[in-house]
Amino acid sequence: MSEKNPTRRDLMRPVHLLGFALLAAVFAGVVTLVSMGVLQEQRAGAADMHVRAWVVAGIVAGITFIATLVIMALSLLAVDPAKMAKPVTRGLLLDPEDEAARPGDGDADRRHAPPTGH
Q1: In tens digits, what is the pLDDT along the chain, a chain of 118 residues?
Q2: What's the CA gap between 20 and 23, in Å, rounded?
């Protein structure tokens, strides 16, 4: 059974990065094929248009694969390696204030005033 709180390193293994990049590339290739009309009826003399669509879709998929891989890898470099071993216990984008204000502290009922001065 898997751990309850996996570490960031466990969440972003190289296989996951490659799988995500491959999924993005396949999606971009399929969107390119559909937008270039590969699924439409083939007319006489339109065979070269289908070949062109497949070539363009392959190029778009390759560019998407490489770009996704580079962007994800560079994003992982922005993370402090010391924090990689810590388990993920809550959402990464949550404010630290939300964690400090827990029910029973007396601050849970207090809400911020709505903005004024329009």
Answers
A1: 455 666 666 666 788 889 999 999 999 999 999 999 888 877 777 778 889 999 999 999 999 999 999 998 888 788 776 676 677 777 777 777 765 655 555 554 555 666 676 5
A2: 5
Is residue 106 one of the residues assigned to a domain?
Answer: no
Which residue has tokens 């390193």? Answer: 9
Distances (CA, A) of 101 to 33, 62, 96, 112: 51, 47, 9, 13
Task: Decide if 58 is inside a domain.
Answer: yes
CB 20 within 8 A of CB 52: no
Nearest to 32 by CA among 54, 62, 17: 54
- Does pTM surpass 0.70? no
Give, for 13, the enclosing helix (H) or strand (E): none
Q: Which domain holds residue 24?
A: 8-100
The CA distance from 76 to 90, in Å, is 19
